[in-house]
Every structure is written in structure tokens, then in C-alpha cells.
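[SOLVED] Need 3D model of a two-part complex

Original post:
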Amino acid sequence: MSRPKARKPKGFRDAFSETAVARRNMLATICDVYRRYGFQPLETSAVEYVDALGKYLPESDQPDAGIFAFQDDLDEQWVALRYDLTAPLARVVAEHPELPKPFRRYQYGPVYRREIKPGKDRFREFYQCDFDTVGCDSMAADAEVCDVLAAAMRALGLDEFVIRVNNRKILNGLLDSLELADAGQRLAVLRTLDKLDDIGINGLEAQLGEGRLDKSGSFNAGVGLSAAAIDRLTGFLQSREDDRERTCDALFERVKESESGREGIQELREINELLDVVGLSSELVRFDPSLVRGLEYYTGPVFEIELPFTIKVKGKQKKFGSVSGGGRYDYLVERFTGQKVPATGASIGVDRLLAALEHLGRVDATGTDGPVVVTVMDTERRVEYQRMVQQLREAGIAAEMYLGSGGFKAQMKYADKRRAPIVVIAGSDEFERGEVTLKDMDLGAKLATEISDNEQWRKGQPAQITVHRDELVAQVTAILSRQ
Amino acid sequence: MSRPKARKPKGFRDAFSETAVARRNMLATICDVYRRYGFQPLETSAVEYVDALGKYLPESDQPDAGIFAFQDDLDEQWVALRYDLTAPLARVVAEHPELPKPFRRYQYGPVYRREIKPGKDRFREFYQCDFDTVGCDSMAADAEVCDVLAAAMRALGLDEFVIRVNNRKILNGLLDSLELADAGQRLAVLRTLDKLDDIGINGLEAQLGEGRLDKSGSFNAGVGLSAAAIDRLTGFLQSREDDRERTCDALFERVKESESGREGIQELREINELLDVVGLSSELVRFDPSLVRGLEYYTGPVFEIELPFTIKVKGKQKKFGSVSGGGRYDYLVERFTGQKVPATGASIGVDRLLAALEHLGRVDATGTDGPVVVTVMDTERRVEYQRMVQQLREAGIAAEMYLGSGGFKAQMKYADKRRAPIVVIAGSDEFERGEVTLKDMDLGAKLATEISDNEQWRKGQPAQITVHRDELVAQVTAILSRQ
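Solution:
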């Protein structure tokens, strides 16, 4: 008989208790910030019509544009797993004209991308947590995006982060002045600019021109711009000043000939004023002309949160990089309805941010403990163990009677694996005296590592106490609150 | 230019704020019960290999056995959206032999089924919330399933429910004694028995025999059993007594010739004893020989929660029916590994249960209110409105400044649609006097309906108060806590 192999498809993951709880805690903190800012939850289906999603991923040259698509058997139309939470939001708003405008919603959940090379840090299923304001063209909504992101980072205990802001209109203004061949070349330039962090300024110059050899030694054809155009682009990218206002002035000089460019600068100036009101400094929220963002649907301000610490990847220190991105997308709803419905928002990359919190030792692990385990010393006494468990549960304490078939040693090992905070032990001696023994697993672990050669440790079980049976719940509660 | 139509695929839904919050509240209550019983969270991927999921749905005769399957581009193997949370759990346990045994996890999330006729009450994406004990053959785990389900129902404020329990082994024992032609006929009998609630005892008799005309007038071929066999089956189905022990006695008489039957009865007797210990009466947890459950993977006790009230469907009163099902599935892990890993658990149908709570007026709507809306009476004062909002948010109160472009009337309408509990109003008069006006939207709505012809209502705005600007947060807090 052939047996299936127990495995999951490449690029997909399971989250066990600790990760699942840490992710939930993190999401609860973020969503509470979203709520305070007036966003309300929305949950959309994971499956959408392909034409409703649109094709906006940077991977648009890949098969199925980087999405998981299949044919619906009911109407033979193509459906796909959502690749983000923004395209479905636009579909919802267009489908429901009765919704209040501005429509302010938040949403979290898994999204799906057909990564060609899934692996560490590249997954085919990952969590996003978005908030958006739909039906508002005021830069107040874009400034608020920065405010919300900063509040979310702070609520998670992160102080070191930079919110980078740019405006597609400025980039577009610059590209207008370069007289590019067509929309294809334009997109190729944008995509190349987006790679600055990966390939550096020299790599970028080569890639914008004739092309370059990549790490594997194969030649990447370049965009084919003239040296003058490349100069203008790289000059633009590097014209960031420490101060937001001065950055606006510097950029203005570079794009003032273009209407789109001037408009983009004006929008940044408005955002700057509003950021000053809420006290977000130029160090925290930085106007950065080198920020591009890969998604094609952005039309105005774009945002990114960068965490400035480095991590080791294949032996090299590398910037941890972005944990959130967003921007204004004024045409996503109009695509459906023909009506102008401007919108802006951002998405937090939940799994990347959780990885950052883990790296920084800032994970909120509340609730990762296992249950109190009531051991079964005497199977004839099951009913009495069951009553203990019931009393603990009634007091809101997570508890279970050992349901396996192992002896005492196996039960202690089980309790340990389950991260039980306390083990309850009652054998015939205890029952005779009307007592139970409680083993404090936390203290036990500490004693075992810290003072294993201690006199007290050697002579007894300092992490165990024996209490009256009637005191079970009170004593367990006391130990738990001490832990 | 052709525009895509804003729509979602058939059988898929969006959950707007109220539903999303109500569902979350309900899940939080259920999961807290699971936690108290010692289950810990697990989250698995939505996409699995088809061979790892196995084909256990009642719809096994449908194309792709009722699942959404497509080919993975990386290895050309077939993958599918999970159709439940049990098959993925078995995969996880088989993939991770290092997990503690018993492995006790809970999980909630969407599952996907290719319903042929999606519609009201039949969806292609719906939520389940499961708990399972894997690696335990003791009936204590099965009795605990009933205990957990009862605790979850009570935690949600439901008192009227029946947990029906049967045992596949007893059914199998009965079928053994009928000398059926083959496994196909056996499965056909099981599936027919499962339809008792829909077609009644007469319809069942016909369907087990020659067949019957269905509602649409077309003929359904029957299973082709003899009259004697049909008699034995229907007699068996109806041999339920009010008392669990007496039901065991009655069933014993009908299957005592079969080893599997005797074993099944013995298991029910063990469960009965344990249910007595935790105080679950025969009315609440009922042994019911007519319970089948559609999923093929069950091997022992099976469970179902029935809500006994009726609802109107197409003009007819109909039992609301099942909101949860489960059972023992001792071979799901063994399928992969060849090692015996017995398991049991149950799944709550989240969306069905939420519909039941809605019907009974028992939804926990905590948190469905919108934000406090600070209206913009004077666009020159945006900075000051922004400060008000900021102060409210810092106090943990959900608040936003109106970001749309409408006048006062539009802003009030917006606040109403957003279910804002309070609207903050400050025009030039208020600013001059250093005051703000707060409109209590809850009280306003009440007054408008209850005492619309009241003297006070006609002459003023009884739901509005004007307070000192410095008192904004304190007064908003006071009104919110009154509401």
C-alpha cells in the first residue's frame, strides 16, 4: 500500500502555538491602533475574479502575473487567490456604493503570491494587516497614514524605525522630462529604481544604461537610457536632505518644469505641515526621493517603514529593511465604476514585522504557556482528577487531565513539552491525607539551571509544595500570578 | 474602454464591520473555552497537497471530490484549498513526530468546498473552529469533546442545545449483520441514513429500497435493500431512549452479534460514565442511533450539536439543525506513517452558529460602534480638530476627524452611517468661547423615535451638550460609559 508523504507545498507554513499566539498578540496591538484612528474591520473572501483583482504585482511578467489562478467551475471565469488586501477593498467599495465615504476599514489575513523561488523570507502565503481611507483626496489622509504607522510601531515597543515617504507624481514628473520611448520603458525605469537597495548606485547606473552582470555572472540587459538621463535620475535619487521642507525645495528644483512634479511637491508640503502638527519629526518620517514601491497601482504619495538594524544573511550583515508599505491609489475603484474615488492606505507585513520583533526580543508572548497538567497517578482515581481539572477550568485557568497512557516520567515530560506552568500530582498518599502536590515548572526550570549545585536543591524538591485539596485553585492561582 | 464588474465569485462573502466584529467576539469566547480545556492554537496553510488531504467529503462523487484543486507550478503536483481543519491537522502531526502526545490544538479559519449550488446557507468559503486531541485512544477524550462543546455553547449564552452522540462502530456492526454486497453499497446506506432529517422515515424506507421521487419529480434510484434489512435499519434508528444507559441497553440487543457493535456500545457506556462525572445530563448529551455524520474518516464516536429551535425557510418552519460536528478518526495520521495515532475532536461551524446567535438575539456586539467623529466646521481650524482627535486617541477612544469634503449635513449623515457614538462640533462660536459641543448620537436616536413629539425635543437639542474645550476627553468618556 502506498502512503502519502506528510508535507506541505513549498512556500507554505504552519504556525505552532508560540508563533500563532505571538502573531495574534501583535495583530491585536496593531488593530487596536487602527481602531483608535477610526478604522473598522472588514473581511473579504480569499478568492476573487482575476479581472476584479487586476494585475498590479511587480511580477507581471511571470506566468499568471504571480498569482494563483484557476477556473471557476460554475461560470468558467478565472478566479484567483488574493495577492493583497487592497485590490479586494477596491472591489468591495465599487460593489457597495451605499458605503459611507470616506470608507475607513482595516483588514488582516493571508495573501497569496506565486513566488518562483520560495524559501527563507519568500513565501507563497503570508499575512498582511492593512488600513485604508477610500473616498478622500485630502493629503490629511496621507499624513494620517504616517501617523497610524508610527503609532502602530510604538504600540509594539519599537522606537527605531523610519517612515520613508515619496510621491509617484514627482517620479512621474521626472520621467516626463526624460522623454522615454513608451510606457514599457517607463515601467522598466521605475522597476530598476526600486532595486537601488539591492544593487547599489553603481549597479543602478549600469542597469539604467547598457546593463550589467548579476551575481550569477549572467548579463542583465539594461533600460538603455542616455548618460545624461541617467545622471538626472541618480542626481534626483540622491537629493534627499535631512529636513523634509528642504527636501521639498531640492526636489522642486529638479522637477519644476513638470506639472505632475510640481503637484507632487505641493502634496508633500501639505503632508509635511500635517506631520508637524502631530509631532512627527523629519528623522522619523523622511521624505526620500529614492523610494519607489513595486505595485503599479500607486498614483500619489507612497510610504514604507524601514527598520534600520542589520541582520546576518548568508554570513553578510544586511539591512533588515521594509516591514510595511503603502500609498495612494486613486484609480483602483474608478477602474470598475468610472467614478473618481481617490484612496490611500498602507499594509503591514505581519510575518516580517514579527520576525523583526523576534530579532529585537520584543515579542509579546502573553498566553504562550500551556495548561496546568493534572497527572494521573492512579487510574482508579480518574474521577477525582477530573474534578480538580473542572475546578481549575471554572476559575478560568487552562487545565487538563493527562489523557495519554504513559507513566509518571512520561507525564512530566509531556507537561514540560506542553510548557505547563504547574503540574498537579496526587497519589494514594496525597489522597489519604486530603492533599495535592503542586510542582512549579517555571521555578523548577530556574532552580535546575541556576543553582543546580545548591544544598537545598540536592536534598529536596524546592519547586514543589503540598497543599490541602480544598486549596488547589487558590494555590495554583497564587503560583501563576507569581510566575 | 471595458470595465471589470465589481463582484465576487458565487458562494463567497464579505463580512462588514458588524459581522466581522460579532464573529471575532464569538470566536474569542469559543477559543477561550478551548484554551481553558488545555488546547493550544495552531494555524496551518490554506493550500495543501491533494494526496495529503485525502478525499473524505460526502461529495466524493463530484468533480475533484468537492474541493478546489489546481496544479502547483513548482512541482506539477496537485494542490487544493483545505476543505476542513482535520485533514491538515493529521498532516501536521504526521510531519512532526516530535510533537507532544496527546497533541491538543485548536484552530479556526476559513475552509473551502466546491458547492455545486452555492446560495443561502451553502457557501464555498466558511469558517470553522476546531479542537482535537491526537494520540489518545481513551474515551475520556471523547467524553471531553462533549464537555468542551457544552461549555462553549454556555459561554455564548446558549442554554437550549442538544449534543447528539453515536458510534460508527455500532452502525458498522449493524451493517455487518445486513450482509451488504460491497463497500459501495455500505457507503450508500450510510449516506442515505444521513438524510433522515431531510426526507423523513418514509422517504428513508423508500430510498433504502427501490427508490423514490424527489421534490422536483425526478426518480432517485434506491439502495436496493430487502424489506427485512430496511426494517432492521429503521428499527435501529428509532431505538433511542430518553436515558443514555437505556439507549445503550436497547442498542446492545440489536447489534450484540457483532464484535464491532459490542465494542461501540462499550465505548458509549464509558463515555456515559464520564459525562455523569461532569454533570452532563441525558437531555443535554443524547445517545442517538440515527446520527451518522457525512465525513468518511470517522471510526468511532461521532458528535453533533443540534439547536432545537425552528426557522422559516421558504415559508415553512424548519429545524435550525446542526452547528457543530465531530468524531473519532483513528486512521487519519496512520494513513501517512503506518503508526497508530488515534484522535478525536469536533468542529464548530462558525458562520452557522453566528446565524443562530443572530436569530436568538444573543450576538455579542461589543466593539461594533464606530469612532467619535470630529466634524470640520471651519477648514482653517483643521489643526485644532486634529488636536482634539489626537487627545481622544491618546485616551484609547476611537476617533477621527471628518476627512470627506461634505458640509455639516453630510458630516452628520456620515457619522450616522459610521455608527459614531458621539459627534464633536466646534464652529467659530465655540472656538471663541473655548468650548466644544458634543452630540450623543445614541440618545439622539432614542429621543427621535421615542419622544419625537415632545416639547423639549421640538425646542432644542436635548442630546447635545456644550462643554469646556479642556473637558473634551472627560466628557466624551462619561457619555461613552453611559451608553
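Edit: The first strand of chain A starts at residue 40 and ends at 41.
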